[in-house]
Design a protein that fits this description.
The protein has 12 helices and 20 strands. Strands 4-3-2-1-5-6 form a 6-stranded mixed beta sheet. The longest helix has 24 residues, at about 190-215. Helix 1 (about 35-50) packs across helix 6, helix 4 packs across helix 5 and helix 7 (about 190-215) packs across helix 8 (about 220-235). The chain is about 30% helix and about 20% strand. With about 475 residues, it is of the alpha+beta class. It folds into 2 domains: about 35-185, Creatine Amidinohydrolase, Chain A, domain 1, CATH 3.40.350.10; about 190-485, Alpha-Beta Complex (Creatine Amidinohydrolase), CATH 3.90.230. The protein has helices at about 35-50, 60-70, 100-105, 135-150, 160-170, 180-185, 190-215, 220-235, 295-315, 320-325, 340, 475-485, and strands at about 55-60, 85, 95, 115-120, 155, 175, 240-245, 270-275, 280, 285-290, 345-350, 355-360, 380-385, 395-405, 405-410, 415-420, 435-440, 450, 455-460, 460-465.
Length: about 475
């Protein structure tokens, strides 16, 4: 049975979720990692108790980290060489790669020493089944299940090599899907998890400023990706999973990658930063226009932002996901013949230790299998709108947290508060001579503020673009501009 005290998420909705510094200090409590471990393990036990399984066996690195609070190099993520077992109220068992098990006995005191074992099965087929490692692992796992009194119950498995599935069955175990149990556990984040997710988002906010300053004609997509990777690792990222960098004619259809394309004047360009900080991931896009944005580009951005705002406005506890999915455009509205072909362009996905967690909200799946939102969920909201010029497109994404009163936003757009929603079109006015990067205008966001994101680059640095009277720089700012010119 799960520990009731450990299951308390510790929310304090009366205050903003913090984005602490990364150092441990003696003058304030930041992330409490033992409390984080206890919460995650209690959530997993609760989910297991609510299932028809007696145990869950995990090869997914994200599930292993959730259960054991251990991690080794990212090289291991796709090797399926480490695994963890949870049975009822017992502490988890961990089989790790060679000497890593010895390391855990020294540095992971929350795990019993005799539960940290060296183990390895097939390294994705590199070691054939005939070597007997799959059979040995299955027999060792069954022995533990017998000790725990759950050998007669089904065992849940998240991902695995097929020879292991066969070996478990040959050992007399009934194998079922265990990933659903783990995703159920990971769905509701604690205050510590939300804090780590917010700290990760703060890093990405800073890197988008770096991208803004580097984006100009002549730069290549891969150079922007290299810059972002370097900056993220300097800031403390433990894994930059991917950075999408798409510009010019590559914007439509969305290729979900980056190349060595040279960025040109007039390009629309969008980026996605997928990385993790202490395991917790980010995923959000920003769209820029290099120089003067064209009318088709602005119209596409406005539509993408409106779809985003409509979806976010619906988010609160108790709302069914099919209602949110209806806020997104049909596949045919953005030039695709089916929802399967358009999947991943206008949708929501849970985010945590994994890039795609629950809930997944889209027109592809949510009408047939809706679920209710709960406070403590965190997910990314994505929209995409191709432009009528046939090549440009707008891509926006925000990370939001479901609270008892609605939503809070983790991703922070580069903005300046706007007094009136009707002034959004004014943000798109062309920059004065010397233009550079013009991030497209950002309409109303979550807290009721109306924001703008129009900036132009001069040799001396960033300047605001010309807009309506309320947007013009002060005399002092204009004098400074002339002096620097």
């Amino acid at each position: 049975m799960a520990d009731a005290e450990a299951l308390k998420p510790g929310y304090n909705w009366s205050r903003q979720i913090p984005a602490h510094g990364h150092s441990a200090v003696d003058f304030e409590e930041r992330v409490n990692f033992r409390r984080l471990h206890d919460y995650r393990l209690a959530r997993a036990r609760q989910a297991l108790a609510g299932s028809k399984l007696g145990s869950v066996l995990c090869f997914d690195n994200n599930n292993i980290r959730y259960l054991t609070s251990t991690v080794i190099g990212e090289w291991s993520r796709d090797k399926m060489c480490r695994f963890a077992l949870l049975t009822g109220n017992a502490e988890p068992w961990l089989w790790d790669f060679g000497s890593a098990a010895v390391h855990h006995r020294l540095y992971s005191p929350w795990l019993p020493r005799d539960h940290c074992l060296a183990g390895m099965v097939g390294l994705r087929g590199s070691v054939p089944p005939e070597a007997g490692l799959f059979k040995r692992a299955a027999e060792e796992i069954k022995s533990i299940l017998k000790q725990q009194g759950v050998a007669g119950m089904p065992i849940g498995l998240d991902i695995a090599e097929l020879p292991l599935v066969f070996a478990l069955r040959e050992a007399g175990l009934e194998v079922r899907d265990g990933q659903q149990v783990m995703l159920e556990a990971r769905m509701l984040k604690s205050q510590d998890e939300l804090t780590l997710l917010n700290m990760a988002a703060a890093m990405v906010d800073g890197v988008y400023q770096d991208i803004f300053e580097a984006l100009k004609p002549g730069a290549r997509e891969n150079e922007i990706v290299a810059l972002a990777n370097k900056r993220l690792y300097e800031m403390g990222s433990d894994n930059v999973e991917a950075i999408n960098a798409i510009s010019g004619e590559r914007c439509s259809p969305h290729p979900h990658n980056f190349t060595d394309r040279i960025i040109r004047p007039g390009d629309q360009a969008f980026f996605d930063i997928i990385m993790s900080f202490i395991g917790y991931r980010t995923c959000y896009y920003r769209t820029f226009s290099v120089g003067k944005a064209t009318k088709p580009q602005l119209v596409a951005y406005k539509k993408a932002r409106e779809w985003m705002d409509e979806a976010i406005a619906l988010i609160k506890p108790g709302v069914a996901t099919d209602k949110i999915a209806r806020a997104f455009p049909k596949a045919q509205e953005i030039g695709f013949d089916s929802e399967m072909a358009a999947f991943g362009l206008n949708f929501c996905h849970g985010i945590g230790l994994g890039l795609h967690e629950r809930p997944i909200i889209s027109r592809l799946n949510s009408f047939d299998d809706p679920m209710e939102l709960q406070a403590g969920m965190m997910f990314a909201v994505e929209t995409y709108c191709p432009a009528t010029d046939g090549t440009s497109a707008a891509r926006i994404e925000e990370e939001v947290i479901v609270t008892p009163g609605g939503v809070r936003q983790a991703s922070q757009p580069r903005h300046r508060s706007r007094p009136r929603a009707s002034r959004r079109a004014a943000d798109a006015r062309r920059p004065r001579a010397g233009g550079g990067v013009l991030p497209l205008p950002l309409p109303p966001c979550l807290q009721g503020h109306h924001r703008r994101d129009a900036v132009r680059l001069h040799p001396a640095g960033a300047r605001r673009a010309g807009g309506g009277r309320a947007d013009r720089p002060s005399r002092r700012e204009r004098a400074g501009d002339r002096a620097r010119s």
